[in-house]
Design goal:
4 strands; 120 residues; globular; four-stranded antiparallel β-sheet
């Protein structure tokens, strides 16, 4: 009887520890930053990609001109704050601030928004 209780306690401890590790792994994945730019052109998208490559602060993970959506991620050894600052500087140098809207999108959401915009 005592070994059954100990086995259950050990199993519960391992389960909790395992869930904490999964949560920690998800929390340390690169943080995406998404924006919608009204009237986005392919030239603007290309200029942003070029400038981000030059600075090395962030990289464009996904872009869809018809939907005006761009998703960015950190480069190695950078965090989301660095991405936000770098992207904001690059975008504001190339377009009017009023055209830029930060949006909470995952990569899958951005791809779905793109597919929807293309189907219109």
């Amino acid at each position: 009887m005592r070994s059954t209780v100990l086995n259950r306690l050990l199993a519960a401890t391992l389960l909790v520890f395992g869930l904490q590790q999964v949560g920690h792994a998800q929390a340390t994945e690169p943080s995406l930053y998404a924006v919608r730019v009204a009237g986005l052109t392919s030239e603007e998208r290309d200029a942003v990609v070029h400038e981000l490559a030059r600075t090395g602060e962030a990289r464009m993970a996904f872009a869809c001109v018809p939907a005006g959506v761009m998703v960015f991620e950190p480069t190695p050894n950078r965090n989301r704050d660095a991405v936000v600052l770098s992207v904001a500087n690059v975008l504001e140098a190339r377009t009017h601030r009023e055209r830029i809207l930060e949006i909470p999108l995952s990569l899958a959401d951005a791809e779905a928004a793109c597919a929807e915009a293309r189907n219109r």
